[in-house]
Structure formats: C-alpha cells, structure tokens
Amino acid sequence: MTSLEQERWSRVKGRLKAEVGDDVFSSWFARMDLEGLEKDTARLSVPTRFLKSWIQSHYGDRVLRCWQAEERNVQKIELTVRTAAIKTQAAKPRVDDQPEASRDQRVEKSNGAEHRAPSAAPIPVSTAHEASGGSPLDPRLTFDTFVVGRSNTLTHAAAKQVASARRGDLVMFNPLYIHAGVGLGKTHLLQAITWAGNANGDRKILYLTAEKFMYGFVSALKNQNAIAFKEALRGIDVLVIDDLQFLTGKNMQAEFCHTLNALIDAGRQVVIAADRPPSDLETLDDRVRSRLAGGLVVEMGPLGEELRFEILKNRVLAARAHHTGFDVPDSVVSYIAKSVTHNGRDLEGALNRLLALSKLTGQPMTMEVAEREVRDLIRPQEPKRVKIEDIQRVVARQYNVSRSDLLSSRRTANVVRPRQVAMYLAKTLTLRSLPEIGRRFGGRDHTTVLHAVRKIEHLLGNDTTLADEVDTLKRQLQLE
Ligand code: ADP
Ligand code: MG
Predict the structure, then answer these.
(1) How many CB atoms sit inside 10 A of residue 40's CB?
(2) N or C: which end of the chain has fewer CB within 10 A?
(3) CA atoms of 85 and 262, how far apart (whole Å)
(4) Which of 184, 305, 343 for mutating ligand 1's site (highest number of atoms within 8 Å of CB)?
(5) How far, rounded to the nearest angstrom, does the alpha carbon of residue 115 sit from its chain's CA centroid?
C-alpha cells in the first residue's frame, strides 16, 4: 500500500472517529485495516467474523460515507476477515467476538440515537448535545463514577469547579488545560464536566473532540456556512475540546486560535485535554501555545494501585446492576489492580473479559480464571520488532544480491533499487532515524536515505510490480 493511501485511510478513520465517538470507535474500528484501494472499492479487513458482520450491518453506510468524503470515487466497501488472526481469536471468547449483549449496550449508551434498545431510558442531555453538534457522550463518564486519588486530586477539583460555575460567574481558570497519558481519565473528566454542566445549569456546554472540531468546520465550509458554525461555537458558554494533539493543519489551527481568543475574551470558559503539555504541541504556533499555557495547566499522573482497585471495584458493582450473577471477589480485583499496568483502558478491558466469560460460561471468577484471562494485559504482546539486519537479509534474498552489495557503493541498477527498497523498509518498519539508517547501510548520508525513501514512495504509487514486491517483503518480515 502506498503512503498516500495510508494517509487517506487515517483521514477516513479520523472522520469516522469524529462521527461515532472514541468509545464506539475503539470498540469496533480500532483493528480495522486498509488492505487496498482499487478503482471504486476500498478493501478493508478486521480480525474476526463477528466484527465483520457487526460493522457491515451497523456501520456499513457510515464507513462508505467517510470514504466518499475523502475520495469521491469510492462506491463500495469490501470487508474481509484477516485469516491469521482468526485462529488465535477463535480459541477463547474475546470481547470483540462475543458478548454481543454487553457490547450492544456500550454502543447504545454512547451512540443513543442509533442503537437504542427498546427498553432503554432516553438520554435527553446527550441527545440535545449531539443535536447541537457535539461529539457523542458516554453516560458512564460522570463525576459520580470518577474515582479521586493522589494522581488526580487537583485536576478533579478544577474540573468540578468549572462544572459548577454559573453563567456570569467570574471565570477562574481559563483555559483549563488537562494533560495526561493514554487511559488516565482525561475524556472521563471532560465528559463529566459536560454532563454536569448541561444537566444543572443555564449554561450551554459543548464537548468536541479535536477531530470533530476539524471535520465539523470543514463540512461547514463546504456547505458555505462557516460563519454560522463560528457563531454557533461562540454562542456557547463552555467549550470543551478533547485530544487537542490531533488538531492539525494551518487553517484549522488558525480557526481554533480565533475561536479560543474570541471565547476567552468574551469571558467564556474553555477546557482542553491533550496527551502532552502545551509546550510540547509542536505543530501549534507560538501564540496558541502561550494562550493555552496562560490558564491553569494540570497534569494527571499514572493511576496508583489503590486507585486502580477502587476503579475496578466500582466497575464490578456497576456491572452487577445489569448482570445478576456476576461477581468478582476482592482478592481477584486486587490481583488485577496489582498486575494490570497503569492504564484505565486496560482495566476496563480486563473487566470486560471477565464479564464476557461469566456471561458465556457462568463460571465463577476464581483467581485461576482471572490469571488466565487477563494474562496478555499484564504482559502486552508487542508487535514484532523488525531489525535492519533482517530487512537487509530478506531484501538481498528476494532480489538475488548479496548483503554486502547492499552496503557497498556499487551503483549498478540491479543493486541500487534493492538498496533503496531496503532503506525504505528500514524507515517505515523500524523507529530508526535517517542518519542511523544511513550508518547501517555502509555509512551513507541521511539525505541519501531520504532520497531513497521518497523515490520508493513515489514509485509505489505507479508501479504495481514493485508494490507487490514490497508487500511480500513486509509480510515475510512480520512472519519471520
Ligand atoms: P484518556 O481520555 O485519558 O485516554 P479515559 O478518560 O478514556 O482516558 O479513561 C480510560 C478508562 O479508564 C475509562 O473507562 C475511564 O472511565 C477509566 N478511568 C480513568 N481514570 C479513572 C478514574 N479516576 N475513575 C474512574 N475511572 C477512570
Ligand atoms: Mg481520551
């Protein structure tokens, strides 16, 4: 696949995420890959049959629409199951594969309009929020379910303060800027602010992911009502933007900057979350960065073991309300809290698995079961690390040259192309820098490597034979 296709695909995914929200996206689309783009068909793959049929029946049109927004020519989506993954997946019930009911609920919860079960209670605040252009809200992410501990006390207090303010109150921290690593509760707090503020006040609070901000703005521009969109944004009391690190592109940043200034100058509250502090948002320009840093910047650290225990314990209780018969003894909760990393998502993943298992088999949650089911969350399997030597060896074999030819200064065509392919693979499959790759290819300059990478990228767009060769090489390197 060409890097151009990859780039399009990540934009399509961005759109999809902005439409369905983080939670739905990571439940269903996180492991969807682009296999290829041909004339009018986008070929996508997922790891399980269950995912395939679920996506087809619930999201087929959406996926297609997101593609068409990027690439007019795409008329259909072809979804396949990646075979290698099936075998390992089929052995034990996985969250994706099985608990349709519990997954259903998640989807219904976070995407109420589309999948609400007949018996489900209406979610008025969220519906109104989405109708006014906000990103989907997950009803579980409230202050009630947020557990406070050492790592998040200050941030929680600031968030509470922001949520409980009234129209006309003096704005204390503006913007409130929260940063923390993945899964440490940023989205949870931001959505809690939105729920609480919209439920109890006279203020209008809009929660937008940075992606939603970008795509909302782009489609408003396309529909020629960018002014209306800006006005709508400026007509709200509190603007909450999640995952600011994903805001890209000069125009978007300029728009964001205007919006930010307009809101703050008008005394409206702005709340931002990102995975890094303002000073590390390299792509933002200096003015925006300093404006962001000018309010209150708070960080949330890793969840401590106690906090993890409390979070899990609460989750078990919440799950019990819907699934009678499900229980996890404290000893098991404590084992999971101790062994599953620092990240809230993995905790939730661990619990979802136990829940799925309990629903499917009715097995009691013993320590033994827990150990078996969450093992891979304790020691997450890293994707295979590709080494530069392996690349050189596999490329040399494929093109029938020797490894020392690749490293030599020979410039005959039969050596030059394989060498460029190998450098390209080294750049795309490893984390090595250009100078480092240059050193490993017989002490070449980094500009030579860059030239090779660009050359191959360019050729891949037109030369299908080369594209096939590169695909084969990649596959071999992953399998070896
Ligand atoms: P982030 O947005 O920082 O990546 P999330 O807010 O999505 O992280 O949190 C990931 C998961 O961990 C969510 O299920 C969230 O509810 C849970 N979580 C994180 N911190 C807490 C906390 N302090 N109390 C309760 N749940 C938490
Ligand atoms: Mg988040």
Answers:
(1) 11
(2) C
(3) 50
(4) 184
(5) 22
Q: Are strands 296-299 and 33-38 parallel, antiparallel or unpaired?
A: unpaired
pLDDT tens digits for range 314-351: 999 988 888 888 889 999 999 889 888 767 888 888 88
The pTM for the full model equals: 0.61
Cis peptide preceding 175, ω within 30 of 0: yes
Predicted confidence at residue 99, as pLDDT, reads 36
Q: Is the Cβ atom of 437 under 6 angstroms away from ligand 1?
A: no
Residues ≥6 apart with Cβ < 8 Å to 75: 40, 41
104, with CB counted inside 10 A (0-12, 13-18, 19+), is: middle
188 pocket-lining for ligand 1 (C-beta < 6 Å): yes
**Maximum alpha-carbon separation in the chain:** 75
List, edge to edge, every strand of the sheet that includes 176-179.
205-209, 238-242, 269-274, 176-179, 296-299
Contact assessment for residue 14 and residue 69, using Cβ atoms and an 8 Å cutoff = no
Q: For ligand 1, atom 1, name the residue with the nearest CA.
A: 183
Q: Which of 413, 405, 410, 444 is nearest to 427 (CA)?
A: 444
Between 117 and 50, whose confidence is greater?
50
Q: Which pLDDT belongs to residue 124?
A: 55
CA distances from 280 to 285, 300, 480 (A): 11, 16, 37
Phi, psi of 16 (to 5 degrees): -60, -45
pLDDT value of position 384: 60
Ligand 1 geometric centre to CA of 344 (Å): 5
Whether pLDDT at 78 is above 90: yes
Ligand nearest to the CA of 17: 2
DSSP classification of residue 181 = -
Q: Which numbered atom of ligand 1 lies nearest the CA of 147? A: 24
Beta carbons of 181 and 151 less than 8 angstroms apart? no
| Contact indicator for 79, 56 with CB cutoff of 8 Å | yes
| List of long-range contacts for 323-330, beta carbons under 8 Å, 24+ apart | 323/102, 323/355, 323/358, 323/359, 325/358, 325/362, 326/355, 326/358, 326/359, 327/364, 327/365, 328/354, 328/365, 328/370, 329/365
Half-sphere exposure of 345 (CA within 13 A, CB side): 11
pLDDT averaged over the chain? Answer: 82
Q: What is the rounded average pLDDT of the residues 211-221?
A: 79
Q: What is the tens place of the pLDDT at every residue in 105-160?
A: 333 333 333 333 333 333 456 677 777 778 888 888 999 999 999 999 999 999 99
Q: CA-to-CA distance for 124 and 180, rounded, in angstroms?
A: 30
Q: Tell me, what DSSP letter sits at residue 280? A: G
CA of 455 to the centre of ligand 2 (A): 37
Please work out whether the CB of residue 187 comes within 6 Å of at least one atom of ligand 1.
yes
Q: Give the residue, by CA position, lying nearest to ligand 1 atom 4.
A: 183
